């Protein structure tokens, strides 16, 4: 895959736009493995399992659960994800910063608002693998080119209902946006209220398609108004040059509270067994 003309063009689109859809990047065996792992994870939740929804429906997620769920461990370490990340980050060695998954059940109307991922400084990309058919109206969206704005931003309030489970989850890892945002961070603009002012991109997805994006590309997603769940398995990747951002102390505290102490320091490279290194052969 990495040597094909199409893949080279995809990497150019990734660098230019901050996000690209890779069709059929994961075959059915990987899709089935991730589906099985998520199903078992729901039955055997880790300390970081959350229901981020409200009374209208479930929005389930877990983080770093590969340590507990063998199917997810295999997906992270053996699937094409590391090779894709290596090409995107232009490094033969990459580190798995995080594995996570999201399952928005039918009726889960909570919207994932516009944000970008700022807890890591330096090379940082995400790979979202679709595990269910997802129409364009329900898919993850991006502001094209926003990774190149050169501005670090945080939302004023991550989810619309302050104090709900999703808001608490975000602040658990990023701090309270009203008093913990570093002074050199901007607020995310109200993109949803003025969509026509931005170049918003997204793709209809089939199981096995993935979206590769620079973590600094602004992205968000609508709720699930379909009749079936929308599941995505996500791996986030960095290099040895990537460091924990100034507000990363919240990540350290959250991991410790979940019984996952990590050898992390603000401003220092990300290391340790929670963040395994994978060398990708050319």
From TrEMBL:
Presence of keyword tRNA-binding: no
Record-linked SUPFAM superfamilies: Clavaminate synthase-like
Alphabetical keyword list: Dioxygenase, Oxidoreductase
Source domain of life: Bacteria
GO molecular function, one term: iron ion binding
UniProt key word Zinc-finger: no
Protein name: Phytanoyl-CoA dioxygenase
């Amino acid at each position: 895959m990495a040597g094909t003309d199409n893949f080279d063009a995809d990497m150019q689109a990734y660098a230019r736009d901050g996000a690209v859809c890779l069709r059929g990047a994961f075959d059915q065996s990987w899709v089935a493995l991730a589906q099985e792992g998520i199903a078992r994870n729901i039955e055997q939740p880790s300390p970081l399992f959350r229901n981020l929804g409200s009374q209208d429906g479930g929005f389930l997620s877990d983080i770093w659960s590969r340590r507990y769920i063998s199917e997810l461990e295999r997906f992270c370490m053996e699937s094409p994800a590391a090779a894709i990340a290596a090409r995107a980050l232009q490094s033969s060695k990459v580190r798995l910063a995080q594995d996570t998954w999201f399952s928005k059940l039918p009726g889960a109307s909570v919207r994932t608002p516009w944000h970008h991922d700022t807890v890591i400084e330096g090379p940082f990309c995400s790979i979202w693998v679709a595990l269910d058919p997802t129409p364009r109206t329900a898919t993850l969206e991006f502001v094209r080119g926003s990774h190149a704005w050169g501005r670090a931003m945080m939302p004023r309030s991550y989810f619309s209902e302050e104090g709900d489970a999703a808001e608490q989850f975000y602040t658990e890892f990023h701090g309270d946006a009203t008093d913990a945002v570093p002074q050199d961070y901007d607020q995310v603009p109200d993109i949803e209220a003025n969509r026509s002012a931005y170049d918003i991109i997204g793709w209809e997805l089939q199981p096995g398609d993935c979206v590769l994006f620079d973590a600094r590309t602004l992205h968000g997603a609508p709720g699930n108004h379909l009749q079936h769940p929308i599941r995505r398995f996500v791996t986030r990747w960095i290099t040895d040059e990537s460091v924990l951002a100034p507000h990363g102390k919240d990540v350290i505290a959250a991991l410790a509270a979940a019984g996952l102490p990590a050898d992390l320091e603000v401003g220092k490279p990300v290391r340790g067994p929670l963040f395994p290194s994978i060398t990708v052969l050319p």
